[in-house]
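Troubleshooting log. The previous structure file for this entry was overwritten by mistake, so regenerating from the original sequence record. Sequence copied from the archived sheet and checked twice against the printout by T.R.
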Amino acid sequence: MATMILANASVTGTAGYAQRIKTSGHEIAADEPEKRGGTNTGPSPYELMLSSLGACTAITMRMYADRKQWALGTIDVKLRLVKEGDEAPHVERRIAFGERLDQEQRDKLLEIADKTPVTKALAPGLAIRTTFD
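Regenerated output below.
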């Protein structure tokens, strides 16, 4: 089976928790909030993860709806990473649409949400293979 690179990112930090992220010609910041010892110069790594999941959810739903010629209007995806007691953390994802949808459309889009690429990568636990240069 051929290897396919799905994404690349380069992350650099020189001091403290603030990091510069470069990917596909874009640069963004990541940091921790001040209450956790950071300088709050960008979203936390968990916030970036949730942002990626939300963006992938909205993009995939829009692609599907466009093929079906369904008007969704604004897609609003709200996400929270929640940890309750000793249980593993889980994501709560709430989706709203600017246009009114019938139950069949809502059911199909709920099914699509669980099939988005980032959802499929995160849901079962993502293997991470680490090496040193």
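The mean pLDDT is 92. Archived copy saved in two places this time.
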